[in-house]
Specification:
Elements: H1 3-40, E1 43-46, E2 49-51, E3 70-73, E4 76-79, E5 84-85, E6 96-100, E7 103-110, H2 117-126, E8 130-134, H3 136-140, H4 147-156, E9 161-165, H5 169-195
Parallel strand pairs: 7-8
Antiparallel strand pairs: 1-4, 2-3, 5-6, 6-7, 8-9
Helix pairs in contact: 1-4
Length: 196
C-alpha cells in the first residue's frame, strides 16, 4: 500500500470507531432518558396479559379457536408514586423498580439489548412481574424525536410493551388448556349432532 492508501485506511478505521462510539453514546443517552421518564412518571399503561396458544401442546392445530391466545387481563393503567432505578432485586438489577402496595413491578427498557435467557430465568425464579419496553426504533432517529414522543411510547402506549413474567402465568396455562378441551368437546358434540 502507498502512504496515501495507508493514511486512508487509518482514517476509515477512526471513522468506524467514532461512529461506534457515537452509536454507543446515543444508545446510553436514550436508555438513561427513558429510565428518567419512567421514574418521574406517576403511572404507566400495562399491556394485556395473554397466554400464547403454543403453551398448550395438545391443542388442535386445525381449530382456529385453539390457535388464539388466551387473554387473562386487558391492558390497564397502573398508578404509582415512587419508582426507583438500579435497585438490586434477587441477584439482578432491573432498569426500573416500582413498589406497588404488596407487590413490585419491574420494567426493562430495550434499546439494543433485550432481556436474555439468564435474566429471564432470574426474573422467573424471583417471581416478580416484569414488562419490557422496546424503544429500539428511537435509536434509528435520535435527532428527530422529541422527549414527549418518547414519554408517550414509554408511559401511554402498549404497542411495544410485553410481559416477561407475570404471576398468573401458570393459572393462564391451565385456563388455556381448559378452554381448548371445552372447545374440542363442543366441536365434537356439534359434529355428532350433525351426523344423527
Amino acid at each position: 500500500l502507498s502512504r496515501r492508501q495507508r493514511q486512508m485506511c487509518i482514517r476509515d478505521r477512526r471513522d468506524i470507531v467514532l461512529d461506534c462510539s457515537a452509536q454507543k453514546a446515543n444508545e446510553s443517552g436514550l436508555h438513561l432518558m427513558a429510565k428518567k421518564i419512567v421514574k418521574e412518571s406517576t403511572y404507566i399503561n400495562l399491556p394485556e396479559i395473554q397466554i400464547s396458544a403454543r403453551r398448550d401442546s395438545s391443542r388442535n392445530e386445525d381449530d382456529w379457536e385453539q390457535l388464539q391466545p388466551l387473554i387473562l387481563e386487558k391492558k390497564r393503567k397502573l398508578q404509582f408514586s415512587n419508582a426507583e432505578t438500579e435497585v438490586r432485586c434477587d441477584g439482578f438489577v432491573p432498569d426500573i423498580y416500582i413498589p406497588i402496595r404488596d407487590s413490585v413491578l419491574l420494567v426493562e427498557i430495550a434499546v439494543t439489548h433485550y432481556v436474555d435467557i439468564e435474566k429471564y430465568n432470574r426474573i422467573k425464579r424471583a417471581k416478580v412481574p416484569t414488562i419490557e419496553i422496546d424503544i429500539s426504533d428511537f435509536l434509528k432517529n435520535t435527532e428527530s424525536f422529541s422527549e414527549d414522543e418518547l414519554r408517550k411510547e414509554l408511559i401511554d402506549s402498549v404497542e411495544h410493551k410485553r410481559w416477561i413474567y407475570h404471576r398468573r402465568e401458570q393459572e393462564g396455562i391451565q385456563k388455556l388448556c381448559e378452554r381448548n378441551r371445552t372447545v374440542s368437546y363442543t366441536h365434537l358434540r356439534a359434529h355428532e349432532t350433525l351426523r344423527h
